[in-house]
Design goal:
253 residues, two-stranded antiparallel ribbon, 5-stranded antiparallel sheet, alpha+beta, 13% strand
């Protein structure tokens, strides 16, 4: 029994490294397939890696590239959107997503919003969750150091400087935590979706007999505002338009 126990323990200890090694080999195989323009094969391997290793901005970005090369616009945008959700600060992801969006039929012009709302959204998306977490810890440590200077420095100017730096560092720390929580909420409660059908008729009611409001085409981004029905979802556009779509015609980011 002791020998069996030792064997099981050894297997448990080596399993993570085996998984990591297998993941690395699969990733290299997918990268090689992509380099040799075998995009469909590479996409299959990248999807398997997502299933086995979990979500990754890099894997989703690679999947987006595979589908973009195959002229599968909706799929490319879907995976670019998923990559951007996990790492909104990545310039390559943002560039490729915009390049793919430029090929879509629907050119949606967002409704105007208050300047501070746009600024807040841009700041939140300027770093990933990990980036905001690191900044929050760094600012908290800086605030503690500045408070130490404020309490123990013998000079008045040093005390004033320490107090000012502590206040600013605490404010940045609070905002970094808010931004990280906001991004985490967006990942855990996803409302964004991409139209997957070549064309989708938006209805006034969740019924095939509802009035046709407008038509959306593949690759268009929508926000789901009502997900309570089994076969229909209510969607909202950034230009203010709203209506109902069959669930099968879109996929959640």
């Amino acid at each position: 029994m002791r020998i069996i126990h030792k064997l099981l323990l050894a297997l448990i200890l080596t399993a993570p490294s085996l998984i990591g090694r297998a993941g690395g080999e699969s990733s290299a195989l997918a990268d090689s397939a992509y380099t040799h323009e075998h995009y469909a094969e590479a996409a299959v391997i990248y999807r398997q890696l997502v299933d086995s290793m979990g979500e990754s901005a890099q894997l989703y970005f690679n999947l987006g590239n595979c589908y973009f090369r195959q002229d599968s616009l909706a799929r490319a945008i879907l995976y670019y959107e998923r990559a951007r959700l996990l790492d909104p600060s990545d310039d390559d992801i943002r560039f490729n997503l915009e390049m793919a969006r430029a090929k879509t039929v629907d050119k949606v012009v967002p409704a105007s919003e208050m300047f501070f709302v746009s600024l807040y959204r841009q700041l939140v998306l300027s770093m990933s969750i990990q980036g905001w977490a690191v900044l929050a810890v760094a600012m908290f440590m800086l605030a503690l150091l500045a408070l130490a200077v404020y309490f123990f420095a013998p000079l008045l100017w040093a005390k004033k400087t320490g107090f000012t730096v502590a206040i600013l560092a605490f404010l940045v720390c609070i905002f970094a935590n808010v931004a990280a929580v906001r991004q985490r909420h967006q990942i855990e409660h996803r409302t964004g979706a991409v139209i997957m059908a070549p064309s989708a008729v938006v209805k006034s009611t969740p019924s095939a007999s509802g009035t046709d409001l407008f038509i959306l085409h593949e690759g268009t981004h929508v926000e789901i505002v009502d997900d309570s029905m089994k076969e229909w979802v209510e969607v909202h556009m950034t230009d203010g338009k709203q209506g109902w779509l069959p669930r099968r015609e879109l996929e959640v980011i």
